[in-house]
Every structure is written in C-alpha cells, then in structure tokens.
Design goal:
This protein has 333 residues and is mainly α. It contains eleven helices and two strands, in the order ααββααααααααα. Helix 2 runs antiparallel to helix 3 and helix 7 runs antiparallel to helix 9.
Amino acid sequence: MMFPMTAEQFDLVYNVLSFTFASMAASTVFFWARLSSIKEEYKSDLTITGLVTFIAAYHYLRIFNSWVDAYHFPHSEGEVHDPELTGVPFNDAYRYMDWLLTVPLLLMEIVLVMPLSEAESTKKCWSLGVAAALMILLGYPGELIIEGDFSVRWMYWGLGMIPFLYVVYSLLIGLQSAIKEEPNPMVQGKINTACWATVLSWCTYPVVYITPMFGFSGATSVVGIQIGYCIADIISKCGVGILIYQITAAKSGGEGLLDTYYTNSSDYKEQDAAATKMAAIQKGKNARKEVEVKKQANAQAAVAAAPVVEVKKTKAQLKAEEKEAKKKKKSKK
C-alpha cells in the first residue's frame, strides 16, 4: 500500500536506495577481484561473500526502479511540487526475495571460516540456513500490514523471532567452542567480530518491523522502514563481507588490504607473536607424534621379521646337521 509523501521524503528514500545499490555493487567487485590473492581452500568463502552482495545489488536495483515507478513529479516551472502516486504499486517483495537467498548465505560464509570439520560445517550450514529461511517466510505476511489492526503483524513478528533467536544463540554461544579452536588470535577476534556485527545489525530488523505498531503510520512508516532496512543490509552484507575477506586473507598467509592498521599496532605484533608461538608448539607436537609413529612402525616390523630370521636359522642348522650326518656315515665306512 502506497501513501502520498513530500518531495523530501521521496528523495530521502530515493537516495538511500541508490546508495545501498552502489555499496552492494562496489563490494561485489572488490570481493571477486581479490579472489586471486586467496588460497584455493578459502576461495569458496569469499566467492559466497561476493554472491551475497551481488544478489542484494540486483534486488536493490529492482527496488529502486519500483520506487521511481510508483511516483512522478508534476510538471512545473521553477517550483518543486510533491510527487504524485502513479497507480503503479511499489513492490517491496523484492527485499524479502533477496533475504530468502542472501540470509542463509550470510550465515554460511561465517560458518565456513570457522575451524570445523567438513561434516560439522555441513550440519551447521543446513541448520542455520533452514532457520534463516523460516524466519524470512514467517515475517513476510506481517510486512504487508502497515495500518489498521496490527494483531496479525504482531503474531508473525513473534513467530519469526523463534528462528531468529536460535540463530543469535548459535552465533554468540553455540559456535564459541569452535571459534576458540582457531589458533590465530587475530583471526579468532575477527570471526567473533563478524558474529557480533551480524547479530547487532540483525537486531535492527525486528525493531524496524514493529515501527508501524508504535504510532508511525502512512508515509512516515514507509520511509522509516526503507531506511532502517537499508542501513541494516549494508552492515550485515558489506561490513561483515569485509571481515570475511580479512579472515580469508589472513588464513591464506597474506594480509588483507584493510589490515594496515593492525600491521603497525602493538596489538597485532603481540597477537602475531602469540600465533607464531602456538604454531611452533603445534609443530613440536606433530614432530613428536611422527617419532612415536615411526617407533611403533619399527617395533611392529621387528616383531614381524623375527619369525622369519628364526626360520632361516633353523634351515641353516638343518643343512649343517645333514652335512655332519653324511660325514659320520663316510667315516664309519
């Protein structure tokens, strides 16, 4: 449902949508352009990050065009009048189609940079992905109600919060043990930051969702919802995407373009020293394990060879005994 609005309100949404589209498009180019600097095993993580912003850029272009088509400015000489409704409905469903694709991918890109086994990563990606998709599907019907009786909107908000809280719990508590397994302190900190940035930006969505229920109605409600969702999307997609890039760059043994500050800081040097020390300890453990394995292998080989040696000695003794027996026979004759 569309409402008459002032030129300032229209321009505000117009500019925010345009800025968000540009942010998503520029982020996509950056992430995919940096793929060549990432090790093969981490390229899929950064590819997914770029895919998230690419899908979002496409849908924001469609949202922007739909917004422009819903209003037109009357012809006037020297004066700016408020826009008028064209009768073409503004299609905000593009936003939910975008979320249905990108929100599960957002969670997947975070899980894939964690030190988890392939089986654990697959399990977490599926559970969080399904929860995210369910959250989006439950929220959309209530989004269509922006005036009148909000009891149905409250109901869908409450239903959507159930999978939302599961995702929040998983990022902040459930996956913490996996994050602590990361040997590099700097990478561990960035993974934690990515989880917190995702959760904090996502907290914007349920707040924006209920703005019509707190007295914001008509054009004011529409403008607030569009701006709020755009800000949250930029943080959760572009902002978290940059963190994922820095993590994959660090894991590849390089340094992200946006890590210059950390390179020159004492915190980075301390973290780097700690990471080097932990790597040396791990290397020592691996060397000791290799020595133990070799000892066990040599012991097993010795045990297996012992009967063979014994058999060889016995045959030699038999031959010697046969020769001795022949000599004795000859001597008797």
